[in-house]
Design a protein that fits this description.
It contains 16 helices and 30 strands.
Length: 526
């Protein structure tokens, strides 16, 4: 059995040598130790090789975010595969267009999704009722491995659970000679190549899906830097429902416990408390219902929580002020700014940020080894974390243009001032929504607000809409606040219309879906 060594594989090999019985993942009543992950990853790699897997084969993963996901991931690390993780919650059309572009040789797919492929009637009612849920389309070029429960599926496939019942292979040979690591503390480096490894597809147009390509080296570098933000202790425990946070925790030696995001706020807080959760990583939207519950019931987040890491969406001062009122005094808040192309760009302490006044969104100081240049108001990035390029597209520039507009303030903090592609053009005026969204988000009664532009055929111009999620405010209240006083904004950015609604969110990061908002406005002729 021929395997490859890398920085990422060294993490698992080292943990298996030093702490094989350490529990790293908890799912319900099931606990998964390091040795189980290591041995099962070898089993998966062995069976793939027996079926003809070759170095560089393309593998799509549509497996549930649990312990099986980690085992599959490490098997593919050992085999030096090219892996694609496509967010299934970005919409079925987007999903299928990206899957067609990637054209996988292999696919690890939730057995429930494969069952839908075989039963047209079941599929019809499923897709009709659950319009926004994922569906893995039939992919004739890919060899299928069914994950999760063993179900009556008749198409040609293998069941992962049957592979995992076998004994681990004994004849392991390493294809390269990277030095083994003698301890599991700081130095997990290995001379990684610049080969493609992980392709992450995010939201985008259907015409040109953009797959962000990371190498072993760039991915390991990102994990290392994010890991340095975590409190490394044998007693720390990360709570998450997202596979990438679970993976980061595992790679830095911090156990994870999985929970269901649909749990009511009271049950989630009780879960964190009774399980002794110390760390939560996630977007701000994950915390809204928890904050509202604590505000209503005049209670606080559990005392066990030591650290909240917030990212994947803007973290506003208004949000931080509400959050700081319902967490324990000792609980730290770290706000992360990054992107798929460069996972960690800058960080800032959340308690400091909520008191810091600036024109825009305070992002903080660049992370270690990150160099930032401001080119025509755009944030451009160079670092060891930086992705290799976009899948099947020309090579990237040495400094990656982020698409975010920003500047360094007088204290040398990086401040986000807008989003280049989000720009609204009205009467020859350039309007950058992020600048004004940060102001509206500070108003009492606003949970989150966004500005969008919708082209009006009669006016031959873009109309500006302000959409607010929240209560206790009327349209007139908001207009008056925007015109005068501390919440006033530039005259040219005043909205033509103000709407109140629950903001649609998409993807596992639950980002506000501005395309869905524009479609809603057009369809309803608002």
């Amino acid at each position: 059995m021929l395997l490859y060594r890398s920085s990422l594989s060294n993490i698992l090999v080292t943990l298996n040598k030093t702490e094989p019985l350490r529990i790293m993942i908890t799912e319900g009543q099931k606990s998964v130790a390091v040795s189980e992950i290591y041995n099962d990853a070898l089993k998966i790699a062995f069976h793939l090789q027996e079926l003809g897997f070759e170095t560089g084969d393309r593998v799509a993963i549509a497996a549930p975010p649990n312990g099986e996901f980690i085992k599959i991931f490490y098997a593919l690390v050992f085999l030096k595969a090219v892996v694609a993780i496509i967010d299934p919650e970005m919409g079925r059309d987007n999903y299928q267009s990206k899957l067609r572009q990637f054209n996988p040789n292999w696919a690890f797919v939730d057995s429930r999704l494969l069952l839908l492929q075989e039963h047209p009637v079941l599929r019809y009612f499923y897709l009709k009722k659950f319009r926004t849920t994922p569906y893995f389309p039939y992919t004739p070029t890919a060899k299928m491995i069914a994950c999760g429960a063993i179900l009556p599926i008749f198409q040609k496939k293998k069941f992962l659970k049957r592979w995992l019942k076998a004994s681990p292979p004994a004849d392991i040979r390493w294809a390269n000679n990277e030095p083994e690591i003698s301890n599991g503390s700081d130095d997990l480096r290995a001379p990684d190549s610049g080969d493609e490894f992980l392709i992450t597809y995010t939201s985008g147009t259907l015409a040109e899906p953009k797959g962000v390509v990371h190498t072993f080296a760039s991915l390991f570098h990102s994990i290392t830097l994010i890991g340095e933000l975590l409190d490394r202790s044998t007693e720390n425990l990360i709570a998450t429902y997202l596979p990438h946070y679970m993976l980061i925790g595992f790679c830095v030696g911090t156990p994870s416990i999985m929970y269901k995001p649909a749990l009511p706020a009271a049950d989630r807080l009780a879960f964190f408390d009774t399980r002794g959760v110390t760390t939560i990583m996630g977007p701000p939207s994950d915390f809204i219902s928890l904050i509202e519950y604590c505000e209503t019931n005049k209670t606080l987040f559990p005392a066990s929580l030591q650290h909240l890491l917030l990212g994947a969406a803007p973290v506003t001062r208004r949000f931080l002020k509400r959050l700081s009122e319902v967490i324990q005094p000792h609980t730290r808040i770290t706000c992360l700014y990054g992107m798929t192309e460069n996972l960690l760009v800058a960080t800032i302490d959340g308690r400091f940020k909520k008191e810091y006044e600036c024109e825009g969104d305070l992002l903080g100081k660049p992370a270690k080894d990150v160099t930032i240049k401001i080119v025509e108001n755009e944030i451009c990035i160079q670092s060891g974390q930086l992705f290799k390029g976009y899948f099947q597209l020309p090579a990237r520039a040495p400094f990656h243009p982020s698409g975010d507009l920003g500047a360094f303030d007088k204290n040398n903090f990086l401040v986000l001032t807008g989003r280049k592609k989000d720009m609204i053009i009205r009467r020859h005026q350039n309007i950058y929504p992020a600048i004004y969204e940060s102001t509206v988000n500070q108003m009492d009664g606003v949970t989150e607000a966004v500005f969008v532009g919708v082209y009006d055929d009669e006016q031959h111009d873009e109309k500006v809409y302000l959409i607010i999620e929240g209560d206790r405010l009327s349209k007139n209240d908001v207009f008056q606040l925007l015109k005068t006083g501390k919440y006033s904004i530039d005259q040219e950015a005043l909205p033509d219309e103000i709407l109140f609604m629950t903001l649609p969110r998409s993807g596992r990061q639950r980002k506000v879906d501005k395309t869905a908002i524009r479609d809603y406005i057009k369809q309803n002729q608002l």
